[in-house]
Design the sequence.
């Protein structure tokens, strides 16, 4: 991991945050936008850029924290790419990052904050130093540390590995192998997981897990990514 | 449930560690192995472990003396008929285990509970040839290495086991500060099944031409972001890349080649080229 760049002051009212309520950081993002100089939009409730001057202003960066189906996400990012001329940093925990970077010209960075964990470190990807600084600064506001990865594929490493573990835990429940409590106990006390897979998945919420596994299945065609029925029901 | 006397058969890494844990719970324990050298090594290892624990003030001198007096290392043909619980921790070979349990079935008292520490052989198969009464008192007790430290014990039943034995053992282990988990007889039980993709998915992320830089990044992410104690590649090197592949193949085959458990070519290539992990000084990382 590279050394943290120094925090820039975000005092020029040049940052936009878009989010959906299903994102685990939604309320935190909304809260910091009150004290910091961010413009916050809930894409499901607010009319985006209703005032014409909103799109004509010069923004330094737009953070997209929406969790929506892939086509909707691509639609939103394409719209933003057309309407706003500034770098975009997007939550891509559940998405095929490579394709978004190929199609969205202003997409310059990605964050992975949809999968909560017991640590305060989250993965991120930046195409250049300036984007890295923007991510660092926002992560700092969210009390998070950034782990910058060298490239992006489908989702990020932690969400991908942990989602497969969760999926197997749900397949085990479907098979009535053990109770959810015993599955959590086994993984915590047999292999030292910080949380049991069932309780952990419930903390994250089933939706991003299912979305990521579906995206992996869709892109690779590999049936290993088939989602447990029980997990899908929860989403 | 009251357990006073235990026989542990197999004095390798797991057997000796299980015997030591039961001794530390105040039970009278016999540890046996067909190979006398293995038994002698286990004796030395356990006694030196007691010394370390005494030095670290985990136990007093009196406690260690008491443990030592309650733990006997006995020749394979010298163990007696009367134990409350017999735990088998020998080689993972179904025929050898079946033969052992069949012999024990005829020799040991009717009330003794038989348990296997197998991690890969179906409990049902091992129970099949036992007499009807014994099948009710036969189950899996899967400990984790080292059993003296790792709190989990998977309690694995089967169709004919007495439910009361399962629930009584659950309570007994809980009372001894273990964390028991009850599961059905299914390949890999809980941990070896659910944890499979810690390795499988990490191998796919690294890809067939994964480099040490890739392994390091994935290991660091799983530790720093996921909060896990060891990264998947560090763990593979510690367990043995070959041992882990063999477990993966066994579970994959037991589930009729279910794609979720499919082994990865990178791991197979490493095993074929002798990169077995720490024990061969070469694995996903190099060791001096």
Sequence:
């Amino acid at each position: 991991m590279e050394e943290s760049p120094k925090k820039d002051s975000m005092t020029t009212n040049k940052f936009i945050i878009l989010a959906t309520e299903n994102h685990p950081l939604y309320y935190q993002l909304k809260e910091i936008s009150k004290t910091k100089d961010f413009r916050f939009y809930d894409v499901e409730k607010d009319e985006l850029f209703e005032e014409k001057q909103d799109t004509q202003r010069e923004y330094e960066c737009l953070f997209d924290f929406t969790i929506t189906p892939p086509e909707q996400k691509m639609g939103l990012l394409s719209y933003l790419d057309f309407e706003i001329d500034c770098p975009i940093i997007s939550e891509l925990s559940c998405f095929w990052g490579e394709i978004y970077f190929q199609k969205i010209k202003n997409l310059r960075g990605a964050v992975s904050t949809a999968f909560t964990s017991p640590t305060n470190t989250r993965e991120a990807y930046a195409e250049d130093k300036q984007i890295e600084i923007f991510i660092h600064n926002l992560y700092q506001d969210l009390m998070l540390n950034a782990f910058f990865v060298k490239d992006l594929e489908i989702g990020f490493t932690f969400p991908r590995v942990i989602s497969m573990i969760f999926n197997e835990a749900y397949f085990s429940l479907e098979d009535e192998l053990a109770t959810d409590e015993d599955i959590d106990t086994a993984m915590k006390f047999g292999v030292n997981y910080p949380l049991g897979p069932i309780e952990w998945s419930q903390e994250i919420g089933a939706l991003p897990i299912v979305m990521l596994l579906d995206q992996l299945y869709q892109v690779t065609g590999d049936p290993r990514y088939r989602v447990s029925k029980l997990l899908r029901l929860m989403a | 449930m009251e357990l006073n006397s235990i026989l542990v058969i197999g004095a390798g890494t797991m057997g000796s560690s299980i015997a030591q844990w039961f001794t530390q719970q105040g039970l009278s324990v016999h540890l046996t192995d067909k190979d006398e050298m293995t038994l002698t090594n286990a004796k030395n290892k356990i006694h030196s472990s007691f010394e370390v624990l005494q030095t670290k003030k985990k136990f007093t001198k009196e406690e260690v003396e008491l443990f030592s007096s309650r733990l006997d290392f006995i020749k394979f043909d010298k163990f007696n008929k009367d134990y409350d619980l017999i735990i088998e921790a020998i080689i993972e070979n179904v025929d050898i285990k079946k033969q052992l349990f069949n012999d024990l079935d005829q020799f040991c008292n009717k009330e003794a509970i038989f348990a296997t520490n197998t991690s890969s052989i179906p409990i049902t198969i091992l129970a099949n040839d036992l007499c009807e009464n014994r099948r009710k008192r036969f189950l899996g007790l899967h400990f984790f290495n080292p059993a003296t430290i790792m709190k989990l014990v998977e309690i694995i039943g089967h169709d004919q086991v007495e439910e009361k034995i399962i629930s009584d053992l659950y309570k007994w282990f809980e009372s001894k500060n273990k964390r028991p988990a009850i599961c059905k007889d299914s390949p890999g039980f809980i941990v070896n099944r659910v944890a499979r993709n810690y390795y499988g998915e990490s191998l796919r992320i690294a890809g067939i031409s994964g480099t040490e830089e890739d392994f390091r990044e994935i290991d660091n992410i799983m530790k720093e972001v996921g909060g896990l104690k060891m990264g998947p590649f560090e763990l593979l090197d510690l367990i043995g890349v070959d041992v882990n592949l063999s477990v993966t193949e066994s579970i994959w085959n037991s589930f009729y080649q279910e794609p979720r458990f499919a082994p990865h070519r990178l791991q197979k290539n490493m095993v074929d080229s002798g990169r077995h992990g720490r024990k061969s000084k070469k694995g996903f990382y190099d060791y001096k």
Summary: The domain at 196-280 of chain B is CATH 1.10.1040.50 (N-(1-d-carboxylethyl)-l-norvaline Dehydrogenase; domain 2). Chain B has a mean pLDDT of 95. The interface with chain A takes residues 144, 150-152, 154, 179-184, 186, 189-191, 193-198, 200-202, 205, 213, 217-218, 220-222, 224-229, 232, 259-260, 262 of chain B (CB under 8 Å). DSSP finds 13 helices and eight strands in chain B.
